[in-house]
User: Fold these one by one.
Assistant:
Number 1:
Amino acid sequence: MTVTAAAPGEGPLAMICGGGSLPLAVADAVAARGRRVVLFPLRGAAEGTPVERHSHHWIYVGQIGKFLRLARAEGCREVVFIGALVRPSIWQVHPDLVGLSFLPKVLRAFRGGDNHLLSGMGKLLEGEGLRLRGAHEVAPQILVPDGVLGRVQMTERDRADIALGLDYLHAAGPFDVGQAVIVAGRHILAVEAAEGTDGMLARMAEMRANGRVRAPRGAGVLVKAPKPHQDRRFDLPSVGPTTVEGAARAGLAGIAVIAGETVIAEPAAMTVAADKAGLFVVGVRGPAS
Amino acid sequence: MTVTAAAPGEGPLAMICGGGSLPLAVADAVAARGRRVVLFPLRGAAEGTPVERHSHHWIYVGQIGKFLRLARAEGCREVVFIGALVRPSIWQVHPDLVGLSFLPKVLRAFRGGDNHLLSGMGKLLEGEGLRLRGAHEVAPQILVPDGVLGRVQMTERDRADIALGLDYLHAAGPFDVGQAVIVAGRHILAVEAAEGTDGMLARMAEMRANGRVRAPRGAGVLVKAPKPHQDRRFDLPSVGPTTVEGAARAGLAGIAVIAGETVIAEPAAMTVAADKAGLFVVGVRGPAS
C-alpha cells in the first residue's frame, strides 16, 4: 500500500460523512495538514456531529446531483466517503434526478461487504470528474502506527492468538465476510459478519456471562484486519474508544489491528481508555499487508 | 467416510448421554436395529430425558471409574458419546479416582472444538478396552439422506448460497471454528463460532428485526457441515426441529447439511416443522465429503 500525503495544492476535499466520531476526526486531521475540507453530512446519519467547525452542506443520501453541484462549486476535485450509515429508511433517501440513477449503488456502497460495487461507485464518480480517495490517504496521521499504543503490553499467549486470528482473516478474505475475530487460547470464539465488530464484542460479553465461553477474563484478543483484496479507499477497518469499551466488557486482553491500514478515531481518548481498562492496543504487520 | 453398520453380534452399546433429544433418538435407532443399549445419562445435563425405556445408570461427568466398571459389567465393548453438555459446574463433576486423571480431558472433550483432545480421549478409552464409535456408525438411519427431506424445494439462488457456504466452511475448516454459516444472496451474513448454531440463528433473527440485515424474509440458507478433518465419532453436526424453528425465526429459505455426515434428531418432526414453516431441508454432497 502506498500512502500518499495530501498536499494543500490539491484543493479542498469533499467528505461525505455518515455517523460516528470518525468523520470529524478525519476532517480535523485533514484540516490540520493545511487542507480545506467541505463536509457533506448525511441526514439521518450524521446528526449530532459538530460539523460547524468546517464548511458543510447537509444532504440526503439520494441527493447525488446536489452533492456534485456543490462539490464542484466549492472547487473540490477529490472526495472521501466515511462513517457509518446504518438503515437509511426510504424516507431519508430523497433522491434527486442524478441520485435516482446512482441510488441502488450508493445504498449498497455504504452497507460494506461488496468491493465490486464500491469500486464501481469510484468509477462513476470519476466519470463525474471527482476522484475518490481513502481516509488513510488524505490523513495518514489517523492510521494506527506500528507497536503498542498505550502502557499495557502483550504477552506471548496474546501474540499466538493474534497470529491465529490474522491467519484466519487472511484465509476467510476471499469470502468477503467480516474483518474481525476474537481468539483466546488459540481458539476462535467469535467471527464477525453482518453484526459488525461492536455486535461481535457484545456477543462475546454475553457468552462469558452465560458460561458458554469459559476462558478467564483478561484472556482473548480482538483481531481486526482489512480483507486481502479490499478497496482501501472505502472500507478501512477502524477502531476507537468504543472498541476499547466493547473489548473491556467482553473481558479481552487487548486489540490487535494492522498498522498503517487501520483508522483510529480519537487516538488519545482510545489510549486513555485502553490504559484505564488494562487492555493493550497494538498495530501489527499482518499477512494481508 | 465408511459407514459401518452395527450388528447385534457386537454386544450391548454403552452410550454416555448429554442433554437434548439426540441421545434418545440414537438409542432408539440402535435398539430398533436389534442391539441392546446401556445409557449413561450425565447428571446436570440429561435430566428430563426419558431414559427409562433403556437400561441406564446415571453418572456424574467425573465418574469415569464407575462408568468403566458398569460398562464392563453390562458386557459393553463399544461406547458412544452424544448430546449437549453445556457448563457443567464444578459441583456436578463428582470425579472418582479414575475420573480425576481423566477429568481435564473429559471436560474439554465435551466442549467441542478440539479434535486432538477428542482423539486422545478415544485412545484412552481404547486403553481401557472400550472402542469409541460414532453415532453415525451405530445408527446409520439417523443420518440425513441425499436430497430434499420435505415438500419445499430449493431455488437456484439457494443452490448458489449453499455452494458459497460450503466453500467457506471448507476454507475455514483448518481453523477449527464453527460448523455453520448463514448465506443470503451470495453474502455471508453470520459465521458460527462458540455461540453455536442456535445462537447464530437467534442473532440472524435479531439482525433482521433491527434492520442490520435487509435481505427479505425467505432469503438465506443455514449451511452446516463437519469440519474437514473432524473426528466424526464425536462431533457430527446435528439438526432437528429446533434448528427448523430457529431458521424460521431467522427468516431463512432453508437448511442445507452434508448427506451421510449429519445426524438428524426426530426426522419426522423435523420434516413436519419444515413443511409447516415453508422451509426446505436438504442433504447435499459437500466439498468436505
Number 2:
Amino acid sequence: MANNMTLLWCTFSVPCWRVMIALEEKMLQGYNQTLLDFDKEEHKSTIVMDLNPRAQLPTFKHGDCIVNESYGACMYLENQFRSQGTQMIPEGLAEQALMYQRMFEGQTFYEKLSDVVYYEYYVPQGERHDSAIKRNKGNLAIEIKLWEGYFQKMEAGSYLAGKAFSLADVLVFPTIAYSFRSGLSAERYPKLGAYYSMMKDRPSVKTTWPPHWQEDQEKPQWGDFLKEL
Amino acid sequence: MANNMTLLWCTFSVPCWRVMIALEEKMLQGYNQTLLDFDKEEHKSTIVMDLNPRAQLPTFKHGDCIVNESYGACMYLENQFRSQGTQMIPEGLAEQALMYQRMFEGQTFYEKLSDVVYYEYYVPQGERHDSAIKRNKGNLAIEIKLWEGYFQKMEAGSYLAGKAFSLADVLVFPTIAYSFRSGLSAERYPKLGAYYSMMKDRPSVKTTWPPHWQEDQEKPQWGDFLKEL
C-alpha cells in the first residue's frame, strides 16, 4: 500500500496519465489521490501551489520527496522500486538504448500533438494564423508517420522499445491514445492502431483509463482534430 | 578510449553540449566526433540522416546503439558506465528526487529560453507579434527567478540537486550558460551567477566549452536578448 504517496491530478492530462500508469506497473496502488478540475483552475489552488510552484498537474509526493515532472516521477518510481512490479528498464543494451531514444522522442510527439489540439488555448486570439494551424498539422502528420514507421520495422506485437514493455510505453502511450481519441485513423495508421489496441487491454492502462472517456469509448473526445491527418 | 562511439555535433547547441559534458564525466574521451555547420545545413546531410531521421544534432552512436535525444544519451551513458567516472545519479532518496525534478524542469527552462532567443528562427515573418515577444520575455523572466530562488534555498556552492554534481547539472547547466552568454545579468541573479562561475571551472565543462566562445569569453554571444530581464 502506497499510503505515503500523494498524487494530485486531472483528467484529460497526458502527463498525469503517465504517472498513474507507472504507479500501477510498480504495484503502488492505494496512494492518496485527488482529482482536480482544470477548468475550475483548481491546479492553481493552495494544495497544488504548496507542493508545486508551477501550478501544474501532476503534483506528486512520496514521503518528503516531491517530483512533479511526469518523466521525472516515473523514472524516480522505477529507481526506488526496482525489484517491485514491472521492471520498466530493460536489461539488454540495444533495448535500453531504444527505450531512451523513444521515450524522449515521445516528448516531441506530445509537443506536436499539443500544438494542434491546444492551439487556441496557447495562442491568444489576435496572434492566431491559419498558416500556423496548417503547418502544425503538417508537422504532426510527419511525426505520426515516423512512429508508424518505427512499428513497421518491428515484429507484430512489439512494444515501443522491443519485446518487453518499458518506460517508453508508460511515457508515450498516453500521447498515442490521445491521438486516436482526437480522431486519428487506425485504418491509415494500422501499426499504431494495433499498438493502441494491445495497450488498451493492459491492466495498468485499463485501471487508469481517463474517467471521462468511459461512457463512449470510441467517440473522439476532442472533436476531429486529427481526422484528415 | 571510447573509439566505438561517434558524436555528430554543432557548436551553439545546448543539447549537443549536454552529451559532451556527460561523455567527459564518464571518462569517455577519444570518441569519434564531427563538428557540423548548422548554418550550412550539414545537419541534413546523409551522415546525419542515416543515423537520425529527424536530422538533428546531437547524433550519437555507441557500437550499434543509437541514442540521439540528448537527455536519453546522457541517461544511457550513466546506465551503461555506472562505475566509471562521475556517479551522476546520487544515492540519497531526497537528492535523487530533486535531481529528477530539476532535470525535467530544465526542459521548460530551455523551451522558454528558446522562445526568446530563437523567436525569429521558429516563427515565420508574417506570424510574428510584439505581444508574443513581450510575453515570451516575461515568461522567461519568471522562469529564471524560479531558478534563482531554488539556489537561494540551498547552501552556497550547491549543485542543482544538492551537494553532489548530478545529471541535473549535466542537462541544465548549458541552458544557464547560454542565458548568461545572451546577456543575463549576474548582478541581478547572483545565485545563478555564482553557480555559472563554479561550473565554468569544472574540467568537463572547460574541455567542452563551445569553441566559438573562446575568443571573447565575456561578451554576450547572442546579442543582449536577456539584458533587461
